[in-house]
Amino acid sequence: MEKIIPYGRQNITEDDILAVIETLKSDFLTQGPKVLEFEKNFASYIGCKYAVAVSNGTAALHLCALAIGISEGDKVITTPITFSASANCIRYCGGEVVFSDIDPNTLLIDIPKVRLLLEKSPRGTFKGIIPVDFAGRPVNLEVLRKLADEFGLWIIEDACHAPGAYFVDEKRNIQNCGNGKYADLAIFSFHPVKHIATAEGGMITTNNKELYDALLIYRTHGITNQSALFQNSMEFANGGDKSAHKYPNWYMELQELGYNYRLTDMQAALGITQLQKADVGLIRRKEIALNYDIAFDGHKNVVSKANELKKDESFSHAYHLYIILVKDRLGLYNYLREKNIYAQIHYIPLHLMPYYRQFGWKEGDMEDAEEYYKQCLSLPMYPTLNDEEQQYVINSINEFFEK
Length: 403
Known about the structure:
Blueprint: E1 5-6, H1 14-24, H2 33-46, E2 50-54, H3 57-68, E3 75-78, H4 85-92, E4 96-99, H5 111-119, E5 126-130, H6 141-151, E6 154-158, E7 166-168, E8 174-176, E9 185-189, E10 202-206, H7 209-219, E11 223-224, H8 234-237, E12 253-254, H9 265-276, H10 278-296, E13 303-304, E14 315-316, E15 322-325, H11 329-338, E16 341-342, H12 354-357, H13 367-373, E17 376-379, H14 387-402
Parallel strand pairs: 1-16, 3-4, 3-5, 5-6, 6-9
Antiparallel strand pairs: 2-10, 7-8, 7-14, 9-10, 11-12, 13-15, 15-17
């Protein structure tokens, strides 16, 4: 096949294009009504009280770290199988990253291992935990919340892979990823390979009004124009006029060291139309996953890590990634590239990146994560992948192992 088949890609349709054009013709390119509309629609979709749109998923994590109060020396737990931003946001605030190994079956952070880590350290050693809904499989945050409460930890859920995913709690209620029921904060990414694309972009969700207000301040330079929050006197704000009875319209205050992490109105307009197609895209992702499941069920050389043939009704997978484990990963990767199939690796264990090795992390520290990395391969997974293209991927994998 001459056409390149990537592991993931955006699906931009005419309604997306028209929405962006309409915004380009409007009065606001940024800081306008589309951002608030996108936030409200996303909060409704996820089922949370508040949503804050930001420039990207990394910015979302950084703002969460600021709002939750990570400071110099604070120890925070996260998984080594994730994109670097899940850990880097801790470092941005001067905190210390402590990795905890994955469950080799789910590929998510192993909650019993987190318990062991907490129990062997003096109480108060750790401030919080950042679990990741890796590949689109949700962490059971009800279980993690109980552990976090036991040890006085906050939770920031990295749900970048999992809009539309959910787990079922003990009362048989569906709990959407990012709904704020168990995590203090959650974040999403709108990078083109994700379920919802705004080129770059991210969203933070929460049910905590105090955290929501802090996020709004940090997102926009640490500046507020809300008079109820002003700290300087009315007299000062009015240039020394003692007769003034209200703050002037021009007045605003820099109250924190914030950042410019805003989303533009063009991106928000795209996000609104993309969100409208999210459920349809998720249905297609599940169809693609099922096709892979059937193709690799019982395969002697391929192990699927998301097999719906062994369906677990305690959760619903969002399938950002479809991951297989193979022994000759390098050989298969190169063979697929020759066939114009651009499979990918998710992820190189973060604790073994040179930046984190400097803090003493070494090979052997996260045995399950390291063993997973030696074999993992992410196959093409996106809604516009058609049946012919997917069959070509499957056939190419079978051809490699039949050589």
